């Protein structure tokens, strides 16, 4: 793992484009592969490459494993350009029905609402409110409360 982390740190852009993206797109990623990708993201990617991987992930079909990767990316708390944040919010809203019972998705939504609360505009609030109405997990009310606590801009 140390050798792979060192390699990824030294050749970050090629790793993002030639290794991480194909690994994430491969079917049947499984928990081991997801854990490896998350460790590489946490240990070896600079903020610009975290944003690059996030932009690539937003174009992929999502699974529970990919949600875990997105949580790891957002956990790095890098600053996101407004365009990238808009794409993230729209993707989350489009997937609300599909992941209505997913705790991973719910935790990801909570991370967006807390880590990136300053990025959320009134338009985002409207979209996210509709997405949260579809949520069927025990954290639904917590998500709605977090969204309601944000002051409108």
From TrEMBL:
Q: Domain Fanconi Anaemia group E protein C-terminal spans what residues?
A: 2-149
Q: Which Gene3D superfamilies match?
A: 1.25.40.480
What GO terms in the biological process aspect are recorded for it? interstrand cross-link repair
Q: Which domain of life is it from?
A: Eukaryota
InterPro entries in the record = FANCE, Fanconi_anaemia_gr_E_prot_C
Matching entries from PANTHER family are given as: FANCONI ANEMIA GROUP E PROTEIN (PTHR32094)
What is the name of this protein?
Fanconi Anaemia group E protein C-terminal domain-containing protein
Q: Which organism is it from?
A: Mauremys mutica
């Amino acid at each position: 793992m140390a050798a792979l982390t060192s390699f990824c740190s030294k050749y970050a852009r090629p790793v993002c484009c030639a290794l991480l993206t194909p690994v994430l797109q491969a079917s049947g990623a499984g928990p081991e592969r997801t854990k490896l990708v998350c460790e590489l993201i946490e240990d070896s990617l600079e903020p610009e490459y975290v944003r690059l991987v996030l932009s690539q992930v937003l174009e992929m079909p999502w699974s529970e494993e990919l949600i875990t990767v997105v949580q790891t990316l957002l956990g790095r708390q890098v600053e996101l350009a407004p365009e990238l944040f808009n794409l993230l919010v729209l993707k989350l809203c489009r997937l609300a029905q599909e992941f209505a019972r997913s705790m991973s998705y719910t935790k990801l939504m909570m991370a967006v609402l807390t880590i990136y609360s300053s990025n959320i505009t009134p338009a985002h609030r409207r979209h996210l409110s509709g997405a949260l109405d579809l949520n069927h997990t025990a954290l639904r009310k917590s998500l709605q409360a977090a969204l309601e606590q944000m002051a409108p801009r």
